Amino acid sequence: MDTPLSTIAVVGLGTMGTGIAEVLALAGREVIGIDISEAAARQAVTSLEASTARAVGRGRITEQERAAALARFRTSDALSAAADAELVIEVVPESYELKQQVFRELDAIVSPTAILATGTNALSVTRLAAESQRPERVLGLHFFNPAPAMKLVEVVSSVLTAPPAVEVVTRLARELGKEPVAVGDRPGFVADGLLFGYLNQAAAMYEANYASREDIDAAMKLGCGLPMGPLALLDLIGIDTARTVLEAMYSASHDRLHAPAPVLGQLSEAGLTGRKAGRGFYTYEAPGSQTVVPDALTPSAEAAAGEGRTVASVGVAGSGTMASGIAEVFAKAGYTVVLAARGQEKADLAKGRIAKSLERSVAKGRLTAEARDETLGRITAAGSLDAFAEVDLAVEAVAEDLAIKQQLFATLDKVCRPGAVLATTTSSLPVVAIARATARPEDVIGMHFFNPAPAMKLVEVVRTVLTADDVHATVRAVCAKIRKHPVDCGDRAGFIVNALLFPYLNNAIKMVEEHYASLDDIDAAMKLGGGYPMGPFELLDVVGLDVSLAIEKVLHKEFRDPGLAPAPLLEHLVAAGCLGRKTGRGFREYARR
């Protein structure tokens, strides 16, 4: 199929359609923008003029290139204007009836060799193609918002699509400077198929009053390096749009994780659809504004504050990377630290690891030699927990095993002075089960640091039903002093980050199991389309497949949701000893060091 695609029509001049038109015009294509609304067409021209003027101002294009692009863009309120187009991309609202009407009319207008592309991210491309007179020339072309900036384009084939049509559109995407990913026809495709399940779970977490909207969003930004938190992202996408996508996904998968959280329906029906309405999960300065303004749900500093206990000295139990990282964090913040391990040799090795870390900071200019020496001087390495007798806060960072942690806390209960706060860094175990190993469960709390502790800003503060208010206040105050961002959550599996992150990773594995997309395409889709710093398979191999499987099992056991059952492929790889980078092979193979 040797179709030049020099003239392209874009049907629907909303934000997405206008963005696609800009990309095409700047790439030298003749672009016909079609919308039944004259106001929308005028706005598209205005937007294109403004965005290209900004591009000139930033040195991305010349004034001559801008003028040429604007000259290649014309608008119409009639579909008949697409008669000469070799490719038509429709981006009208997500409605089968509306899209089918557009395709029926286009069948009678465009040439028999023209390709018809739908920009849907939720509806069946196959269903739209089946009602066309040219199903072999119908496919999906899913751009991401904002189209001029986002590199990903999902090229969606139905069982009816002719391969040459896919090839020519894929070539176009590359010529536009995009990264095309070939996918089959299922709701959400790759990027949205993974993203919207995660967003839905975040909405359900908020609806259950498990954590505040601010804490959910902060946890995912700071804990996973995401550009936006899930609730803020839902407001940006449009809560009504998200609900539509999830309903389409649920109708196809019958997976409860895709069943739209009731709060999405309630907000949609109330007209609180996010930024475009001026209110969604958050309240905005005005409809369309990105500026969040305080509302009745905004937490006040006074409400968050409380009378805590005095903490001057900290004990850290453990000898691994996490323990030494936490000890370094506390020592840098001015605390006197006792780093205890099983035996003096292990404790000395852990302190040695801190010394090397501090030395690297000095070499990079982040720390002075004097500060390094002062920090190291605050740390005492001890071969027994008996050294915790006078600490104000004891933090354990030992193996993720309930029996081991319970035994350690039983020892802390005997060793630590009355009134000392006892904290566990568990990422998956019930904090209350650890607390009950002591005679003072009210003094026990979760402080879930993220690895590497010196660099990661997040701490999940996990209260049990028995944790005292002043213990909670103490830990929040300590987090502020060590320059970490605390988020509050209850004592349930996964807390915030892992409860939202690992089902997403599990669903990515299922996509590979089902031969829907490749590892590389899924990783590329989530980095380019979702703004993730790492693709899911890159992250799984870094975290460790055994660690990932253990967390998946804990989530499945607690929530009893079939959709949370670990993907068999993950179990098989762990059974084969393919645990990721640490073994040289996981989902990918790595060079041995």
TrEMBL record:
Coiled coil: none annotated. NCBIfam families: PRK07819.1. Belongs to the 3-hydroxyacyl-CoA dehydrogenase family. This is 3-hydroxybutyryl-CoA dehydrogenase. Keywords: Oxidoreductase. Pathway: Lipid metabolism; butanoate metabolism. Residues 188-284, 494-590 form the 3-hydroxyacyl-CoA dehydrogenase C-terminal domain. The lineage of its organism: Bacteria, Bacillati, Actinomycetota, Actinomycetes, Kitasatosporales. Transmembrane segments: none annotated. Residues 7-185, 314-491 form the 3-hydroxyacyl-CoA dehydrogenase NAD binding domain. It holds the Pfam family 3HCDH.
